[in-house]
Design goal:
By secondary structure, the protein is α/β, with parallel strands linked by helices. The chain contains 6 helices and 11 strands. Strands 9-8-7-10-6-1-4-5-11 form a 9-stranded mixed sheet, with helices on both faces. A two-stranded antiparallel sheet has the order 2-3. The structure holds adenosine monophosphate (AMP). Belongs to the ETF beta-subunit/FixA family.
Length: 249
C-alpha cells in the first residue's frame, strides 16, 4: 500500500509571530520556517506503518514556495521515499490544497492519505475533511492510534471526553493528533541520503486547479495583553471584588 503524506511549510512553532505594521498578516521576513508539527507526526506514522509491513511506499507532497523543498527534504530524511512539490507563491487556502491533493491521489492511488489535523499557521483544520469529501473516501480525524487490518484501518480518535474508535474501509483519509506518536529526528546519514531521493516539481496548473484565494483577511492583531492579577485574602473579599467589578450581582 502506498501512503501519501502532505506536509506544509509553516512558521516554526518556537517562533513568536510578529504582526505586520499594517495589520495585513504575520510578518514572515527572516523568520524560521519548519514542517508543520502535526505533519511530522503524519510522516512518522507513515514510516511506522511501513516498518510494520502495512505500507510499501511513502510519498510526501507539499504545496507552496520553492523553499517548501526543504520541508520535503526533511520528510525524505525522516524516511519518505519520494516527494512532489507543487510550486506556487500564492497563499493557498485549504480548499485549493484539497483539490490539488485530490488530483494527486487520483494519479497515485494511495491506500491512505495521512495529514496533520491542522496547520499551525492558519489553524484551519479543514484540508483533510475537504479532501475526504472531494474523493468520497472515509475519514478518521484527530487520530491517536492507527491500525491497518487488511482492507480496513482502525482509527482511535480523540473526542470530547474520551476516545472513539472507527473502522474505515481503505482507501481512507487520516488526520493526526498530538498523541499519535513522537516523530523521530533525521540522522545525518539519512539527511545526506535524502538529497538524492526523487523530488518531482509540479505547478497547480498541472492539476488544473485555480489557487486564487476566496477569502480576504481584513485584519490581524495581537491578542490583548493580560492584565496583572490580584491576590485576595478571603472568599468574602473575592466576592466583594467580583461585585465591584460587576462580574456577579
Ligand atoms: P489546515 O486545514 O490548513 O489546518 O491543514 C491541515 C493539514 O493539511 C496540514 O497539517 C497538512 O497535512 C495539510 N496541508 C495544508 N496545507 C498544505 C500545503 N500547502 N501543502 C501540503 N500540505 C498541506
Amino acid at each position: 500500500m502506498k501512503l501519501l503524506v502532505p506536509v506544509k511549510r509553516v512558521i516554526d512553532y518556537n517562533v513568536k509571530p510578529r504582526i505586520k505594521s499594517d495589520g495585513s498578516g504575520v510578518d514572515l521576513a527572516n523568520v524560521k520556517m519548519s514542517m508543520n508539527p502535526f505533519d511530522e507526526i503524519a510522516v512518522e506514522e507513515a514510516i511506522r506503518l511501513r516498518e510494520k509491513g502495512a505500507a510499501t511506499e511513502i510519498v510526501a507532497v507539499s504545496i507552496g514556495p520553492a523553499k517548501a523543498q526543504e520541508t520535503l527534504r526533511t520528510a525524505l530524511a525522516m524516511g519518505a521515499d519520494r516527494a512532489i512539490l507543487v510550486e506556487t507563491d500564492a497563499e493557498v487556502e485549504p480548499l485549493a490544497v484539497a483539490k490539488i491533493l485530490a488530483k494527486i491521489a487520483e494519479e497515485e492511488q494511495p491506500g491512505m492519505v495521512i495529514l496533520g489535523k491542522q496547520a499551525i499557521d492558519d489553524d484551519s483544520n479543514q484540508t483533510g475533511q475537504m479532501l475526504a469529501a472531494l474523493l468520497g473516501w472515509a475519514q478518521g480525524t484527530f487520530a491517536s492510534k492507527v491500525e491497518v487490518d487488511g482492507e480496513q484501518v482502525s482509527v482511535t480518535r480523540e473526542v470530547d471526553g474520551g476516545l472513539e474508535t472507527v473502522k474505515l474501509k481503505l482507501p481512507a483519509i487520516v488526520t493526526t493528533d498530538l498523541r499519535l506518536n513522537e516523530p523521530r529526528y533525521a540522522s545525518l546519514p539519512n539527511i545526506m541520503k535524502a538529497k538524492s531521493k526523487p523530488l518531482a516539481q509540479k505547478s497547480p496548473d498541472d492539476y488544473g486547479v485555480d489557487v486564487a484565494p476566496r477569502l480576504t483577511t481584513t485584519n490581524v492583531r495581537e491578542p490583548s495583553k493580560r492584565e496583572a492579577g490580584i491576590k485576595v485574602a478571603s472568599v468574602d473579599e473575592l466576592i466583594d471584588r467580583l461585585k465591584t467589578m460587576g462580574v456577579v450581582g
